[in-house]
Design a protein that fits this description.
Elements: E1 2-6, E2 17-21, E3 34-39, E4 42-52, E5 65-66, H1 75-88, H2 92-99, E6 115-122, H3 134-146, E7 148-150, H4 157-165, E8 169-176, H5 193-205, E9 211-216, H6 222-235, E10 239-243, H7 250-261, E11 265-268, H8 274-285, E12 291-294, E13 306-312, H9 329-340, E14 344-348, H10 353-361, E15 365-369, E16 380-385, H11 386-391, H12 399-410, E17 414-418, E18 427-430, E19 447-449, E20 454-456, E21 463-465, E22 478-481, H13 485-495, E23 501-504, H14 514-523, E24 529-532, E25 545-550, H15 564-576, E26 587-592, H16 598-604, H17 608-622, E27 629-637, H18 640-657, E28 663-675, E29 678-687, H19 693-704, E30 711-716
Helix pairs in contact: 1-2, 1-9, 5-6, 15-16, 16-17
Bound molecules: adenosine-5'-diphosphate (ADP) and zinc ion.
Length: 721
Amino acid sequence: MYVNVLIETRVKSNEMTFTYHVPLELSKNLIGKRVLVPFGKRTVEAFVLEYTDFDNTYEVKDIIKVVDNDPVLNEELIDLGKFMSNKYLCPLISCYQVMLPKALKANAKNNNQVKSLTYVKLNNDVSTSNIKIKSQLEIVNLLKENKEVLKSQIKSKSSLKKLIENDIVKEFKREVYRNVEVYSNHMNITLTKDQISVSNRIKQSLGLEKTMLIYGVTGSGKTEVYIDVVKEVIKNNKSAIILVPEISLTPQITSRFKGVFKERIAILHSSLSDGERYDEYRRISRGEVNVVIGARSAIFAPLQNLGIIIIDEEHSESYKQENNPRYNTLDIAFKRSKTHNCPVVLASATPTIESYARAKKGYYDYLELNKRINQMPLPKTSIIDMKKEVRNGNRTFSGELIQRIEDRLNKKEQVMLLLNRRGYSNYLMCTNCGYVFKCPNCDITLTFHKTSGMVRCHYCGYAEVKKDVCPSCKKNSISQIGSGTEKIEEEIKKEFNGVKVARMDADTTSKKGSHYQIINDFNEGKYDVLVGTQMIAKGLNFPNVTLVGVINADQSLNIPNFRSSELTFSLLNQVIGRSGRANKKGEAIIQTFNPDHYSIVCAANHDYVGFFNHEMFLRKKLNYPPYCFIILVKISSKDFECGIKEAKKASAFLRKNLTDATIVLGPSMANVLRINNNYNFQVILKYKKEEKLYVSLKELIKIYEGNSKIKIELDFNPINL
Ligand code: ADP
Ligand code: ZN
């Protein structure tokens, strides 16, 4: 008997299955399990994909050992991997590796992560009637009452030891799950008429392969709609996946789900330990839960009998994986929806231009929640022209923002301030000679972090101690340009004596649980002001926040990306939506140097449709998605000359092999030419329909296979361009 197995080889290609012979004693039910096989001079772990007839043309080796008792990949996941590999032209093995928790990946360092505890119980075959010693009797009585007790809970260790020696008490181990601590929020909620109507529309679609888009303004109560629908799904003996963008979003939504679905829910978020993740994963694959809530990779949760997939905040960039395999979670959801005949529900207050356009065209069912639960209007939003403020000497905070913050502090209400840049200052420059501190490995300026006294590269992680003397002109004239969240925190404290400020960004949330701590403390009123990056913009629900300030709305407008207006609109809309979510009226202030920009004006007016129309007009004129598809071909090399040469070749190859229906742009330099000492170039493909696309791209990949000097990667419908 023979099997085809998948091995991670050093030469990354799409063809990595190898045939092995299966010794008779190992032959049963191997599909989806990991096996140990000899491979060249090494022994490696491989996934068994299928049984095969051997055709005797070459010599095959034996499988050494079967690693798993139960398959780690079920039939659906095996198929899904092949689908991904074909769709994104990425190595099949990378697709399986990304689906699995660490302990179940091939060649995991530590793949026995099962946690077990030692229990004790009475040996029923032995009489306890002649036990006279008091401490022993106590143990016996305890075990009579409770049958099984954790060994660690028994105080008198020596008596227990005696009882075990005399065979009166037996000890045994039992596998346990690590307890993922989640706060559980119970509420009795009666759905509003609008919520019921949206929920009913979704319920009517259960059992159908279709996509539905909920356009729901911030605070319209989408979470309760999901819960209502998922209850129905469970009633039908099916299961549900709910995806949320980021860990920052999960505490509040997960606690609501936990409150309703109790132990029938598994939570997969990025700050779980490997062991916790492994346990949650096993609960899912053993069919012990019927609801999974988690970030991107939870789309691969091996639930049987899926009844619905809900993607909350569907516009979020985090649904696109930015390294291999560069999958889009929505694609995977659509594929699973087809397999299980179940609907995909996308929801957002700012759907992507692509999703909204599809809903308008009727490809998706369109649902709307256009009012806030509290019946309040959306926050009244003012735009402040910072050009004027700067002339008046207000660099960071406008007069208006200061005044409003003061007002909230007096009323004991809370404020959120967004600045989408962490660190203290953007970069350091010598005001004498113009020298700018840059990363030695990347073409990027270093960001100053005052708390640690370091300057850091946000691309490669390079860090050094901040210098006060210019390395170039040796003058003492280093100046900090621009502000980050650290500086905002500092300045707001200077401005208002005694104000309590929390900061939430990648620097303050790197420790496990710190995220939740900040959210919780702010929610309990331990802080007056929360300063943060885009992390604070999404999904959070603080009833006492009545003012949101955006320090510099131009930050995201100025990134070189055709989506920059969309990203700006969506970020502003989301963060404004954090204001006035309970029974107090909310306000927002946007500080900008571009007060007339349509994405800022539309965000202030809560005008999604206005924004959509303007953006669609531009996308059409400039031929960008949804009017075409884009593929980014990335070519990188440590050697600048070699990189350019090969990028030109790749571009010429694509021009020659693709039809006229495709526009081939470039090669050009990537937005950041050098990252981690690799030079990055790109070729952009724009097309609507291209019959020779896959053949040509596959051929291109083949050309560079095994070439250690050049790396070619494909990004289908990239987020960053
Ligand atoms: P969204 O995700 O649409 O921004 P949420 O689901 O966070 O909104 O709901 C906003 C707030 O309204 C939450 O505090 C939620 O508990 C509350 N809420 C939702 N539905 C109802 C309802 N039917 N009755 C009362 N409160 C509700
Ligand atoms: Zn760097």
